[in-house]
């Protein structure tokens, strides 16, 4: 079977790998000139945190996301499973309590455990939550690794091709274009996320740390070699415009609150991605005619791609009824 | 309740921020029975119309939209945002919010009055988010506002009614002006209290959006507001120091 996947973001690449490993002849078309910034995955945090996400996401996200950790460990060996640490300033202890009420698979962390897990935070936070089973990865390196794997599997990626979904000639077309699919999926909306990349060689963190705050929580994810990714805002906007001063201040302020040494960090990059979301913020895999749509992964691209890709592959390879829908919930 | 000539059955106004998803917001709106939903307009989104996805979901709810100027820190900024909101939502209604302090998010009442006067003169129907200060309330009415929205407590704090005396005074001074408690309500019991004080309505956001079950909480508030209003209209008894048996003992058969 010949399958064309449109879009080389995380959903497209993962879907292509799943298809190719089941023997389909796959090609990917991507409107961008090469792997990179046209995909919102490029600006993702890369947290594989199904249980932390329970704080705001509906149950299917954790249920579908839990299996993704082993998928990523299998396909990207630099996936790190050291858990997630969630902390809050003493003033905001109520936020921790609320977070704990809505999530599972964590242990309460006192000052000693926080210090043992992340010595640089010793004495700075007295209470937190530790989610030991969660993992994280560097999205850009992961996307590159998947691209290399696909190459080795004989899958071509044609860059610089803005495919018309209706006109692609293949047995099956899988539309993984993210927010660009808004032209055919009217319910899809953009949710803007902004991030900052910092170099802070004086700070050592070994796992994602989330700082809770009544107005804006942030997360800091170590990328190695003293580089940290700071994210992420959630704005009801599809603008790809540059990071605003307000967002940058919110993010940097929070980083400074996490550790004052961030004040000396160098700003390497300010980035913006627009995440595709359906009104319930849950992902969908469904088929319309010859086209299977994988979309609405919202802020969970890396977490949910493996599960959604598997659903898409089953739909593509099986002879499912024409307008079938396979929703996550 | 009549706000700027619009007759509303529900006395609950609902904010649209911070829900887990727009679908959840839609369910909460339905469960609350509200007829008015507030929407905040970030200036950068407004300029590029890039918030369309979310705004069209709000419009599809079939309720009246009350755009707000959340996040504005000066009269000028608020006026600009209000005009942008009028263009986008095609309504003269504007919830005017001018923040004076970043920590408490309390209104800058001086810029609030200034912006209210300018917007009222420009044909807007202004819903000013203000404190419980009587003199400021009076100035807002002079500026042309015909609805007032005093705070219960700082935005998002969930502390209920911080100054009952001040709120009671407002009610007593302006018996004919619709007064809506805006901000600070955390629990249904707070809303009941506001309604029992004789306020015309309550505007909520965080208390519903950040509840464990926003839809159930929206329904709980709807009932609380109805109960509080009914209690107010039924003229509650005054508290007394002396106990009085509800069934008199005199004349009862005495059985030994």
TrEMBL record, chain A:
InterPro entries: DAO, FAD-dep_OxRdtase, FAD/NAD-bd_sf, Gly_oxidase_ThiO. Keywords: FAD, Flavoprotein, Oxidoreductase, Thiamine biosynthesis. Residues 2-314 form the FAD dependent oxidoreductase domain. Its cofactor is FAD. Pathway: Cofactor biosynthesis; thiamine diphosphate biosynthesis. It comes from the Bacteria. GO terms for biological process: D-amino acid metabolic process; thiamine biosynthetic process; thiamine diphosphate biosynthetic process. Belongs to the DAMOX/DASOX family. This is D-amino-acid oxidase. GO terms for molecular function: D-amino-acid oxidase activity; FAD binding. PANTHER family: D-AMINO ACID OXIDASE, D-ASPARTATE OXIDASE. Its EC number is 1.4.3.3. It catalyses: a D-alpha-amino acid + O2 + H2O = a 2-oxocarboxylate + H2O2 + NH4(+).
TrEMBL record, chain B:
InterPro entries: Aldolase_TIM, Thiazole_synthase_ThiG, ThiG. Pathway: Cofactor biosynthesis; thiamine diphosphate biosynthesis. Its EC number is 2.8.1.10. Homotetramer. Forms heterodimers with either ThiH or ThiS. The gene is thiG. The keyword Transferase applies. Belongs to the ThiG family. Keywords: Cytoplasm, Schiff base, Thiamine biosynthesis, Transferase. One of its GO terms (molecular function) is thiazole synthase activity. It comes from Rhodanobacter fulvus Jip2. This is Thiazole synthase.
């Amino acid at each position: 079977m010949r399958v064309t996947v449109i879009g080389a973001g995380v959903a497209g690449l993962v879907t292509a790998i799943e298809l190719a490993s089941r023997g389909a002849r796959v090609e990917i078309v991507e409107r961008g000139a090469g792997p990179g910034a046209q995909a919102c995955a490029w600006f993702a945090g890369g947290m594989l945190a199904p249980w932390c996400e329970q704080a705001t996401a509906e149950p299917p996200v954790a249920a579908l996301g839990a299996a993704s950790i082993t998928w990523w460990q299998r396909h990207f060996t630099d996936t790190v499973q050291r858990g997630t640490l969630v902390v809050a300033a003493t003033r905001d202890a109520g936020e921790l309590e609320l977070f704990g009420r809505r999530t599972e698979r964590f242990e309460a962390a006192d000052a000693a455990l926080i210090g043992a897990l992340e010595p640089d935070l010793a004495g700075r936070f007295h209470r937190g939550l530790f989610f030991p089973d969660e993992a994280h990865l560097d999205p850009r390196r992961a996307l590159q690794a998947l691209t290399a794997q696909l190459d080795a599997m004989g899958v071509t990626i044609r860059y610089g091709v803005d495919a018309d979904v209706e006109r692609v000639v293949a047995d099956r077309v899988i539309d993984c274009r993210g927010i660009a699919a808004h032209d055919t999926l009217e319910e899809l909306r953009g949710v803007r996320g902004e991030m900052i990349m910092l170099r802070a060689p004086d700070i050592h963190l070994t796992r994602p740390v989330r700082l809770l705050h009544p107005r804006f929580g942030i997360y800091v994810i170590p990328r190695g070699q003293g580089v940290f990714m700071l994210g992420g805002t959630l704005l009801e906007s599809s603008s790809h415009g540059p990071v605003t001063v307000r967002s940058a201040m919110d993010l940097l302020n929070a980083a400074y609150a996490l550790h004052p040494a961030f004040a000396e960090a160098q700003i390497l990059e300010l980035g913006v991605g627009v995440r595709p979301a359906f009104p319930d913020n849950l992902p969908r895999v469904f088929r319309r005619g010859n086209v299977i749509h994988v979309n609405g992964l919202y802020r969970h691209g890396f977490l949910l791609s493996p599960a959604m890709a598997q659903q898409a592959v089953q739909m593509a390879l099986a002879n499912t009824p024409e307008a079938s829908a396979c929703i996550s919930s | 309740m009549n706000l700027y000539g619009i007759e509303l059955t529900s006395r609950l106004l609902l904010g649209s921020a911070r829900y887990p998803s727009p679908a959840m917001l839609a369910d909460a709106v339905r469960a609350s029975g509200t007829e008015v939903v507030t929407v905040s307009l970030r200036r950068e989104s407004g300029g590029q119309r890039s918030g369309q996805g979310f705004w069209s979901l709000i419009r599809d709810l079939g309720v009246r939209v009350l755009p707000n100027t959340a996040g504005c820190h000066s009269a000028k900024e608020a006026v600009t945002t209000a005009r942008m909101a009028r263009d986008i939502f095609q309504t003269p209604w504007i919830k005017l919010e001018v923040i004076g302090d970043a920590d408490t998010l309390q209104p800058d009442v001086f810029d609030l009055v200034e912006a209210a006067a300018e917007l009222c003169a420009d044909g807007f129907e202004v819903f000013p988010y203000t404190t419980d200060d009587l003199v400021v309330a009076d100035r807002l009415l002079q500026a042309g506002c015909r609805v007032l929205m005093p705070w219960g407590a700082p935005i998002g704090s969930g502390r209920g009614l911080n100054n009952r005396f001040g709120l009671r005074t407002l009610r007593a001074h302006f018996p004919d002006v619709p007064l809506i408690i805006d901000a600070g309500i955390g629990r249904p019991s707070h809303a009941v209290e506001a309604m029992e004080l004789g306020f015309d309505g309550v505007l909520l956001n965080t208390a519903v959006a950040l509840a464990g079950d926003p839809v159930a909480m929206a329904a709980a508030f709807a009932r609380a507001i109805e109960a509080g209003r009914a209690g107010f209209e039924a003229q509650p008894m005054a508290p007394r120091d002396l106990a009085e048996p509800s069934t008199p003992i005199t004349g009862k058969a005495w059985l030994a």
